Amino acid sequence: MVKRIIKYLWEYFMLTAGAAIAAIAIEEFLVPCTILDGGIVGISIMINSLTGLRLSMLTLVINIPFLIVGYKIMGKQFILKSGYSMLMFSAFLEVFAPMQNMTEDYLLAVCFGGILLGIGVGIVISFGGCLDGTETVAILLNRKFDLPVGRTVLFFNIIIYSMAGFIFEFDIAMYSLLTYYITSKVLDFVDNGMNQAKAAMIITNGGKEIADMIYKRMGRTVTILEGEGLISGKKDVLYCVLNRLEIYELKKMIKEADASAFIAINEVSEIIGNHIKRKESIVDAAEA
After folding, report:
1. Per 3-state DSSP, what percentage of the chain is helix, strand, and coil (rounded to 5)?
2. In what order do the strands lie in the sheet with 233-242?
3. Same structural domain for residues 114 and 135?
4. Three-state DSSP class for 273?
């Protein structure tokens, strides 16, 4: 029990730290130069620049509908951690807003703001949270239409940056796109895979039970193979492809079902062939 409490405290401490680092990047580097982040934060910065409304409140309020969607597709744990991370992010935006800006040089803002933002967002994602609601929509579209999550998020952001070009200047849009590129590369380093799918191989004694849990809770199909350990004997080997935001929930789920299971998670550079999607009617019937 004590270890579990310490684990939760550490997770929420890291979520808080990640939110704080991301807020510093936004308020001290990007906002002074009207450089946009992607997603909800980018939209909020545009509205803030045009209306003067508080950026902290905008990011929180606009993210609420996406949190509701996230609850339906990612589960209770995801919405708790994401909601907490977004609340902390909003609070830190308010704290850092009146402070002296780090720089008003566009190149420095792009480089250092992008690096800090990537570190902050990467930490939050690594510990099971999320700062931007557009990724939950991207995951939903991935499950419904098999659209790649990374490319969907990039498509949303290109639309946002194009709008920024017309509203402000196209220099702003290009600086913002460069910031997004730097952020994604740093996040790739922190979280080991911004736009790449992840392949999980699970060796367990309860293959059918875990496969059913993954299918019902996450909508991911699983390939079940038969294996044999040199010492442990007969085992079930599960193979499943997920996105990076689902890895934390997968590990938590497997630990609940079989604490002795062995899990190996690898990057997937390319997927060829049809992905078997979740059959909603079957799952809904099972959950009912």
Report:
1. 65, 10, 20
2. 223-229, 233-242, 197-204, 262-268
3. yes
4. coil
In tens, the pLDDT along 21-55 reads 999 999 999 999 989 888 899 999 999 988 989 99
**How many structural domains compose the chain?**
2
131, 209: one domain: no
Q: Render pLDDT for 226-239 as a digit per residue (tens, 0 to 9).
A: 998 888 889 999 99
63 and 203, same domain (yes or no): no
The amino acid at 48: N
Q: Range of 264's domain?
A: 197-287
State how beta strands 233-242 and 262-268 pair: unpaired
Write down which residue in 160, 191, 222 finishes a domain: 191
- Scanning the structure block, which residue is given the tokens 């849990």? 213
> Does one domain contain both 156 and 202?
no
Contact by Cβ (8 Å): 109, 28: no
- Crossing angle for the helix pair 55-74 and 76-96, nearest 10 degrees? 170
